[in-house]
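Support reply, case 0932

Customer input (verbatim):
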Amino acid sequence: MKLYADTPVRRLRQVLGDLLLVAWVVAWVWVGVTVHDVVLGLAVPGEQLDEAGTSLAGWLTEASTGVDDLPVVDDAVAAPFLGASSAAGQVAAAGRAQVEAVETMALWLAVAVVLVPVLLALVVHLPPRLRFVRRATATARALRHGTDPSLFALRALAHQPLRAIRRVSPDPVAAWRAGDPDVVEALAALELEGSGVRPRRQRS
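Our regenerated output:
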């Protein structure tokens, strides 16, 4: 698989583009983590409410048990303690529910903050990069297998800009049909360069 072009300038642009994409993703992940931590700060009152309610409910339950065990005290005296303990338990449950709601909101908000810009960047950056990789890989493989330069020249006639082709020859189609070696070589080099592959004669 060929990920980058052979020509230095184009390869540098591709490497910088990939590095910028990675930096973009890392930056937004950091933003997402920061947003998650900030939103989680809203759960502190709920945690304190849960802790206080649980502690109070436990203390009231112990008090009702102690009062109930007294031999000279009627069992009805412990009822208010049990009622208060139940109310404290409800307060603790409300605190836990608040914490869970804040945690859920923090998670999905962080996911949204990261996904939207990252997906936009991937949609913009990946399709042309994948097209280049497929084209460059296929072209480099064909070149290694000794494909006739005429095939690359034909592809140049079909894919390269007309202005670039006319710089090779005033009538490039006729020259290609006649098998003009200079024109065929120039057209093939044009196609290889467009695919990000350096012709073999330029390799050292």
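We compared this against your earlier run and they match. Two observations from our side: The helical segments are 8-40, 44-68, 79-144, 149-159, 162-168, 172-178, 181-195. The chain has a mean pLDDT of 82. Please reopen the case if you see a mismatch on your end.
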